[in-house]
Amino acid sequence: MKSMALPLMCALALGASGAGSDDRDDKDKKPKISVKANPTMGMSPARIVASADLNGGANDYEALYCPAVAWEWGDDTKSTTSADCDPYEAGKSEIKRRFTADHVYRQAGDYRIQFRLKKKDKSIAGGSTSVKIRPGLGDPGGGTH
What we know:
By secondary structure, the protein is mostly beta strands. It has a 5-stranded mixed β-sheet, with no helix packed on it. Strands 1-2-4-7 form a 4-stranded antiparallel β-sheet, with no helix packed on it. The radius of gyration is 18 Å and the shape is elongated. The protein has strands spanning about 5, 30-40, 40-45, 45-55, 70, 80, 100-105, 110-120, 120-135. The chain contains no helices and 9 strands. Strand 5 (about 70) and strand 6 (about 80) form a beta hairpin.
């Protein structure tokens, strides 16, 4: 299954525009989230490790400093985390660029994993990927007996 990357969900000013320029540095581009699952396919019960990477944008981008993290696993379960960070300092504070979490799927199915960065209950960035879980010993009637 392939990962989908979504641009930031809100229009955030990133400094000098340079729109239409193909030679902008990576730090001048809008940050994007790419989400991956490993493995992308398994048999129940299956432990899946999901990772989300923030690519592009400035390293001290205030709007993405110290966000809450929410994972929706596609099986009616969610995981959320937040950090207790020092106050933002321009030029010193750095944004986190990699987020990981794991989840156990107990039943077969096709699931969409959704990742969100949040500030005060508002999604500011996100992405998703899919996993396929086949019947195994964890499913009624699955696997061999």
